[in-house]
Amino acid sequence: MADEQTALTDEVTDLLQHLIRNECVNDGSLESGNESRSVDTLAQYLGSTGLDMEIYEPRAGRKSLLARIEGSDPDAPTLMIMGHTDVVPVNPQGWSRDPFAAEIFDGQVWGRGAVDMLNLTSSMAVAFRRLADSGFTPKGTLIYLAVADEEALGTWGASWLTEHELDAVKADYVLTESGGFQMPSPDGPRLPVMIEEKGTYWSKLTVHGTPGHGSQPFRTDNALVTASEVVRRIAGYKPPPRLAGTWTAFVEGMRFPAELTQGLLDPEGFDAFIETLPVGFSRLAHACTHTTFSPNVAHGGTKTNVIPDTVELDVDIRTLPGQPGDEVHAMIVEAIGDLADRVDIWSNDDPSTRSDTDTPLWDAMSRVTGRLCENSALVPFMMVGGTDNRYFRRAGSVGYGFGLFSERLKFEDYASMFHGNDERVDQESLRLSTELWIALAQEFLT
Fold this sequence. Notes:
Elements: H1 2-21, H2 36-46, E1 53-56, E2 64-69, E3 79-84, E4 104-105, E5 108-110, H3 118-133, E6 142-147, H4 158-164, H5 166-169, E7 173-176, E8 190-197, E9 199-208, E10 212-213, H6 223-235, H7 245-254, H8 258-264, H9 270-274, H10 279-289, E11 292-300, E12 306-307, E13 310-319, H11 325-336, E14 343-350, E15 353-354, H12 360-372, E16 377-383, H13 389-394, E17 398-401, H14 411-417, E18 424-426, H15 427-445
Parallel strand pairs: 3-6, 3-7, 7-17, 8-16
Antiparallel strand pairs: 1-2, 2-6, 4-5, 5-18, 8-15, 9-13, 9-14, 10-12, 11-13
């Protein structure tokens, strides 16, 4: 048994290292990503299974790979395990190690994408190959999808596939990032499952002023100065919390001490209460219960001696379930206040999505994780970022975000490494996730 676990760990570690080193950085531009590098790696890795694979390339270099093990019963459910191959940009100066060397240190693989989400993309591929090599003959169909462009709204990946190749990628159930980190509770580890994710309302704010000579700034209408005040107001805007639905189910499922539960479910004192909590959890608690506004990019000015007449601000806004776009637009206007007539607002409304927990897959996940992680139980949770699950939910799938991580990967570290510095994952987590996908396919599809 130990030898088998070691071999499994080595295999998934090696594949993860290859994907990290492929450096499929997606900065949002059409030419970035180059996911074809990792699709080629995965195609070579899975080629020995003898199964048919399809590669989709809607734009040069932006490849996605799909492989399937066909089920024998057309009435049995189809399960897709889906991982993306692109990663976000990185500033190497903030890292302790080369972000694309995929070094192993102290039982951890370091590199951009190690937790978001090349670890799961790799473990899913290894599980799929192990199942295929074992002669796995399920009643339901198992699909593996390595998808492009998740880090830039899925335009050349899940969005394109569900629009143009839905028959190929349609599945009853979809599993992707994230979740599955162990959160301690009085009754044993609780494993969050992302059943819901916030919507995005990414907005571009164009702030207007009047051009002039930089040598005479007195009483001028400098768009950059106005934009700085707009940024300050947006960053300081504090809408009230909404404590309901998935958040309430999570808090109650965690069985926190009474004082903590009361604080996390008190709408009047919630914001003050989470200020007292560890920073990682307080950030997540805030994001799960608020519409959030983060002004992250500014463009303006043409020359040092020219007073700018326009500045563009990109604001990352994440919306709560059921929140309409016109409500969020009104919140932007409220935040800006008396400067609103100086600002043009353009927004992309991509609403929240959700899946129920009363499903056969949820029950199967509970049974499998109960065996792999002693005394554990699943709890519903909200993904405060966005994943490709939203496209599949809208196409009719039940979509969950999950994995299985060891006790070594603490929640505080897990949360801070998404799009952050020194991203890394321990090898025990890689093994556990691989074992999860194998056991779940056997449990759910046979």
